[in-house]
Amino acid sequence: MESVSNLSVLFNILFNGMATVFIVLFLVYLLGKIIIYFFDSNSNTIIDNNYNNSNLENTISQKIKEVAGDDAKIISFRKLD
Question: How far is CA 37 from the centre of its chain?
């Protein structure tokens, strides 16, 4: 009978630990979502919808040339949603 009691205690510790880890990870996930919701800068201001493709391509090309050097060029680009 003593081994059943020890087994019961072990399962109790196991389930309590798993529940604690699940709750903590859920709180971290939820807190991350809240932080992103409140502190996320407007990503739409980086590329305004009023730009036409040529202006957008020139802007991207200039930024790439600043980072990669004068030999860099854009072959193609597309907007990721």
Answer: 12
